[in-house]
Amino acid sequence: MFDLDAYLARIGLSGRPSLAEMHRAHTTSIPFENLDPRRGRPVSLTLEDLQEKLVVQRRGGYCFEHNLLFKGALEALGAEVDPLLARVRLGAEPGVTRPRSHLLLGVAIDGRRWHADVGFGMGTPLEPLPFGAGEEHHQSGWRYRVVADGAELVLQTADRDDWVDMYGFLPEPVPMVDVETSNWFTATHPRSPFVSGLSVGAQAADGTRAWLSDWSGLALEVRTPTDRSLTPVALEDVPQLLADRFGLAGFALEPDDRLVPISIR
After folding, report:
1. What gap in Å lies between CA 69 and CA 147, rounded to an integer?
2. How confident is the model at residue 82 (pLDDT cuts 50, 70, 90)?
3. Catalytic residue chosen out of the listed positions 23, 26, 36, 63
4. Residues 156-215: pLDDT tens digits?
5. Which of 47, 120, 214, 259 has the greatest number of C-beta atoms within 10 Å?
6. Is 237 considered catalytic here?
7. CB neighbours of 140 closer than 8 A, spacing ≥ 6?
8. Residue 5: active-site member
């Protein structure tokens, strides 16, 4: 059974909130993080384990964890939710085809269908978008739109005067076995950036984004719709930064530079 009351308390809500209220509250309450794959721990997608990790333990997760937890909450409120898999285009070299390693959701509720995604890290929309190609949407200063590209739908975000592809997906539900396979690759394959690197992110309701990663040198990036700062970070300072900036307390740095929960040291 899904513990809806505990989930809503985790994101600061109660009762029967709207889809938009839940989406915004989730993205601004539960951090994005890959601390388990980075220390060699596979990621479970059972709803029981997701609730234990993200709700009870107050951890974060990456796209599969975030969006399947969100799916469970929406279904507990009576929504019909389809999992969809996307190929991340952001940062891809021209001509490179990436695997379908990102999970998003198609949500049918109150007679309308929505594109929901609470787990894209630095670029996660704060609120759901109407499903399918359409007009531009403004969310706390950030701009999004969905366009058609052949059979795919592509989520884009604005970077000043340019539109940047974030990911492309076929608008067709996928079975959980495909989600599990994509998650296993993302959490365990040595070429996966979530295995080889550090990624931790958080969003604020005013649109401010914080992102800690070591993909191009260990640094903390803070973005608003109009500004960006990048601050180098020393590895030994990461546990305190996780606690202070991202609400992820209780991690320690091991001699092999892995970040592990203090409870298992």
Report:
1. 27
2. very high
3. 63
4. 999 888 999 999 999 999 999 999 999 999 999 999 999 999 999 999 999 999 999 998
5. 120
6. no
7. 126, 205, 206, 207, 225
8. no
